[in-house]
Design brief:
Length: 352
């Protein structure tokens, strides 16, 4: 299955009034100088090739000279908003090197390459169509994972910071066989990543939808696996879709886990990760409650997928309350409640 075939299945859901109130309250929504539609006003484009002269499936956009200056100035302002809270003192140091458009993907993203002209250091950020299910995925990542993530919404536009790391497929192809790889630490992290995805129902973690961060330790490298695609937050109906271990291109890492980690130790790592997620709940109970109230009033998937997922989870957890869930938000928070033994986090109407 190609990336295009996968992405064509995903519907973009509009941001509701209730979600906008939540985003405004937590400073996620604000006026941006450039919107998604502005970046569509191009005069030409050309394929972006990699160092092997292979088509990356991204198109580099060409803008009218006068219009482009205005757009690029606004993009620089968005970048400093994401990276330094809007400190405009650094604006003169920056220039927009390139704006690329993705020819696949649910939100048809633009990737903006920003360069510091004094040291040639570069960074990226993304401009996308605002999709409610993706925004919920981003918020759950912020609240339940060990990772900070910056994004802002303005009407139908979503801007996100770039997440640094080696793409999972590149890591599997180029790093998995290296002699300095700490296999046990990598296997442990992948098991914990697998658990994080399932607890909060983040789907489609194929190898190209996550990155691997490598941090040198005083003896060997440490690893962290981070999701970079949040479009499939509680969207699909198959339970296995929320477990990275079941995707074919993750098989080399799954085999590594199976060969190095026994079942008892794997369960220990799963319990450790659930304990950490549970602690994060206790840090932001008010915000989590507000997000749950928004999400449990939303339609962010089809009735068919909802029926399939709640039946699958009901069988797995042996809990018939899943069959009573009205939408994917209720399914998600009931799954979190059951997985973490947090009954108070289940949708209130399912507790009676």
């Amino acid at each position: 299955m190609t990336k295009d075939n996968i992405q064509q299945k995903k519907i973009i859901y509009p941001v509701s009034g209730l979600l906008r109130e939540y985003l405004g309250h937590y400073k996620r929504e604000m006026a941006l100088p450039v919107g998604y539609d502005n970046l569509l006003q191009t005069v030409d484009s050309y394929p972006l090739m990699n160092e092997m002269n292979e088509d990356t499936l991204w198109q580099t956009m060409v803008y009218d000279q006068h219009y482009g200056r205005e757009i690029f100035e606004g993009l620089k302002q968005i970048y400093v908003l994401l990276r330094s809270g809007g400190d405009k003192k650094i604006l003169p140091n920056l220039y927009v090197d390139r704006v690329d458009y993705c020819t696949f993907g649910n939100t048809k993203p633009f990737r903006v390459r920003i360069v510091n002209q004094y040291n040639d250091n570069h960074d990226y950020f993304y401009v996308k169509k605002a999709d409610a299910s993706r925004i919920y995925g981003l918020e759950l990542e912020q609240l339940l994972s060990p990772n900070e993530i910056n994004f802002h919404v303005d009407r139908e536009t979503l801007v996100e910071e770039h997440i640094i790391g080696v793409p999972g497929d590149d890591f599997i192809n180029n790093f998995l066989s290296r002699e300095d790889l700490n296999e046990v630490r990598l296997a442990k992290e992948f098991i914990k990543f697998n658990e994080r995805c399932f607890v909060r129902l983040l789907g489609d973690m194929r190898a190209y939808n996550y990155v691997v961060e490598m941090t040198p330790d005083f003896e060997q490298n440490q690893y962290r696996v981070r999701a970079i695609d949040f479009d499939q937050q509680c969207y699909e109906g198959r339970r296995s879709f929320y477990l990275p271990q079941f995707f074919k291109n993750n098989l080399p890492v799954v085999d590594l886990c199976s060969n190095l980690i026994n079942v008892e130790t794997s369960h220990q790592y799963q319990r450790e990760e659930r304990t950490l997620i549970k602690r994060r709940f206790n840090v932001s109970p008010t915000r989590i409650k507000s997000l749950r109230e928004c999400m449990c009033e939303e339609t962010i998937s089809s009735d068919e997928k909802l029926s399939q997922l709640r039946s699958g989870l009901a069988r797995m957890h042996k809990d018939e309350r899943f069959e009573q869930c009205r939408n994917m938000g209720e399914v998600t928070f009931l799954n979190i409640a059951v997985a973490l033994d947090l009954e108070e986090e289940a949708p209130s109407r399912l507790l009676s």
